[in-house]
Specification:
This protein has one domain: Alpha/Beta hydrolase fold, catalytic domain (Rossmann fold, 3-Layer(aba) Sandwich), CATH 3.40.50. The chain contains 11 helices and 8 strands. By secondary structure, it is of the alpha/beta class. Strands 1-2-4-3-5-6-7-8 form an 8-stranded mixed sheet, sandwiched between helices.
Length: 304
């Protein structure tokens, strides 16, 4: 069968990758607010936006954007992507490049907003994410998606959100779903999964009293009953240390769960997400590896 579009693409040699990463860093330093690197990626993204500002709940932050693929003859895998931002910032419009890139490669992609600190604290943002996933399951067919191939995916704080939905059955259970039954898989990119003790005053306020914090950690729910998971991280990440991914993968594997982790050398916290853009996909294999895990209308899904 045909392979996904990027399946045969080999990442650039290390020296070339480092050169381009230096150029991107200079670009980021010199960019103005009106022409940020994110805005440039969004401007270069293909036009796959099918619906904007769709309500998945009653609140003003409970909105999502839908990116639809070109029909391929059978329903597309569905990906709900949660952005990062330390749970206190972020906007779905900034991640058009992710939704469009996934849609251009055969996925129905949904990018929701969710409530942020200080408006809410743990676990309200997880309740929002669960509502968005339930909405995706109920409405995917409207845009050619297959609710039986439903994935959650996220970067940084969004990877935490995706992991919690996949590992702790409480959140999807509240919307009538079971992670192992209703999720085809979860992709976590540079996520914090095991980050106690907290040192930031904001995080202490976000995650509540110290005695309650262990239940906020994804690793605490790694009992082997999870849907398949792909965990990606950059070895040079100085914001979320790669040990989060390594420890969670080891815990899941030791319990008999399905997981694959990949630690990319010379890759930091931002570029691993930027490489989800089709324009930057040669700088890191984030997009290629995610697509191989998710599968595409024309290709075989990778198993873990």
């Amino acid at each position: 069968m045909d392979q996904p579009e990027d399946a045969a693409i080999t990442p650039l040699p290390q020296g070339i990758r480092q050169t381009w990463r230096r150029r991107l860093a200079l670009l980021a330093v010199g960019a103005t607010a009106a022409c940020s690197p994110v805005r440039m990626l969004n401007r270069m993204a293909p036009d796959r936006l099918a619906a904007e500002g769709v309500a998945y709940g009653p609140g003003p932050r409970q909105l999502l954007d839908v990116y639809a693929p070109v029909p391929q003859g059978r329903p597309a895998p569905v990906v709900v992507f949660f952005y990062g931002g330390n749970w206190d910032s972020g906007d779905r419009a900034d991640y058009r490049f992710v939704g469009a890139s996934l849609a251009a490669r055969g996925c129905l992609a949904l990018v929701p907003d969710y409530r942020l600190h200080p408006q809410v604290r743990f676990p309200d943002f997880l309740r929002d994410c669960a509502l968005a996933v339930a909405w995706a399951r109920e409405n995917a067919r409207r845009w050619g998606g297959d609710p039986a191939r439903l994935f959650v995916m996220g970067h940084s704080a969004g990877a935490y959100n995706a992991a919690m939905l996949a590992l702790d059955p409480e959140w999807l259970g509240a919307v009538g779903m079971v992670p192992r039954r209703d999720l085809a898989g979860a992709v976590g990119i540079a996520g914090p999964y095991d980050f106690l003790p907290l040192r930031s005053a904001m995080l202490m306020d976000l995650f509540g009293p110290e005695a309650m914090r262990p239940r906020t950690q994804p690793i605490a729910f790694a009992d082997g009953g999870n849907p398949p998971m792909l965990l990606l991280h950059g070895a040079s990440d100085t914001l979320v240390e790669p040990g989060n991914t390594i420890r969670l993968a080891e815990r899941i594997r030791s319990r008999g769960g399905s997981v694959k982790e990949r630690i990319y050398p010379d890759l930091g916290h931002q570029l691993i997400a930027g490489a989800l853009s089709g324009s930057l996909r040669l700088l890191a294999p984030t997009l290629r590896d995610s697509l191989a895990f998710i599968g595409s209308p024309g290709g075989e899904r990778e198993t873990v």
